[in-house]
Input
Amino acid sequence: MMRAEPVRTGDPSGLRASHADRDRVVELLTIAAGDGRLTPAELDERVEAALTARTLGELAVLTADLPEEAGPAPAKEVVRIEQHGAAATRSGGWTVPRRMEIESAWGDVTLDFSDAVIPYDTLRIDVDMRAGALRLITRPGVVVDADSLAIDYGQTKVRPAGRSAVPAVLRVEIHGRLSFGRLEVRPRRRWLGRRAAGAGPRGADV
Output
């Protein structure tokens, strides 16, 4: 007895989307937002649509106005920040490396992932800080693990980025030691829909 072959329409847009298909679109949207091609509001709207898309056609609509290969050159493997008595900030569309080394005394270091380009799924941060604050500003899909960070006479304040249904696009693992300082992890206000009008500049990048 012959087995009936499945009927193919020749149009892939009607095929059901898989989890991997949705993840690829979310990654492309995230990179496009880091390049400045999408506003934060557009990114939120399209990511939500991607996560609920049922077919490949519904996913294709979300990236139809974006280049197939959005994003800058590959990120560096290791980036080192060394400063004493000053402040260091990474913000805007900076490219997240695979690993960071931070050596700081009497100053703050801020890593803002709100608009960052994320080519890797994991970022390891090795910290040697004294008398300063390490601030991580996250967005949905950025998860921070500070279990391996030793804190001497310091504070830890971690706020979730919300939107638990968003798949993780970056896991930040913090290692090392923080003495007489504090670790702050919080989402940027605009991701919570409470961005204040007329906010001041973010500060100089390093």
Q: What stands out?
A: The CA atoms of residues 129 and 204 lie 20 Å apart.
